[in-house]
TrEMBL record:
PANTHER family: ACYL-MALONYL CONDENSING ENZYME-RELATED (PTHR22911), MOBA-LIKE NTP TRANSFERASE DOMAIN-CONTAINING PROTEIN (PTHR22911:SF79)
Keyword Membrane: yes
Organism: Irregularibacter muris
Name used for this protein in its record: DMT family transporter
Pfam families: EamA
Keywords per UniProt: Membrane, Transmembrane, Transmembrane helix
Top-level taxonomy: Bacteria, Bacillati, Bacillota, Clostridia, Eubacteriales
InterPro entries: EamA_dom, EmrE-like
Family: Belongs to the EamA transporter family.
GO cellular component, one term: membrane
Amino acid sequence: MNCSPSSKGYFFVAISGAFFGLSGIFVESLSVYNISTPLMGFFRPFISFILFLLYLLFKNREYLKIDGKGLLFIALLGFVSQTLFNRFYFSTIEKTTITTAVVLLYTAPIFVIVMARILYKELLTLPKIVALIVSVSGCFLTATGGSLEVLKLNSTGLLFGLGAGFAFALLPIISKNLTKRYHYLTIACYTMGFGALFSLLFINPREILLIDYNAKVLGNLIALALFPNALAYLFYTIGMSYDIQSSKASIINTVEVPVAVFTSYIFFREDIFGVKLLGILLVILSVVMIEYGEQFLLSMQKREKSIL
């Protein structure tokens, strides 16, 4: 069975979301060693950059070539999707709770749909609106278990949380045009490099030297950089290179939440049943709706015309 280019693109975005959802495992493990979240926010792009750089140096150095304009836009992408996002997201966790941060983060598809409509003239269709509502509802139920009591809202935390959602929303918006001009490996490599560079502004570099780099710490740092960062952003960029709709990609990427909850159940025995399971099913349903909803409506319209 042959898949259309857009279906392949959305598939890669879904894979990306699954990788994003693995971050909790490694963050939890590193927290035991008193490694702060800002330091994790530096190591994620820094190690990812080293991995991409080594791969390209040995595999294809041509992908390291880029013009000044491209470098400028990728620097912006690195600052927004790595530095700014990490800063806002971790600040939300500090000011509120992890659950609150996750719920606020997934306002991102709303921002994407608005920006994609303005910048790329992407249509605001009924299936897309319904899928968005189902997706956001699913993320809320999955993260909270349906209880508002687990949320801890204050004005500062709310602003940081919405800032994280907006920063995450800029990933498909900025990368959509970049993937038309540059190879996805080029984009991924330099995005991580700039992300690490800008992250130095928010940490004390001396703290890097004070870490006890034992085998478990190194293993978790590399895994944190490789799976929920390097591979996650790489697959997202590959997906966007198929010239897919940013708005649809942002909704499909919400599979991160069910994956995060499922891995928490496997590794930390956190509850996954009841309302949370309903939330997971809603997120999966939204992905199906965004992929096949418009196709179904078109086929129904054609059938009506043929009957008339």
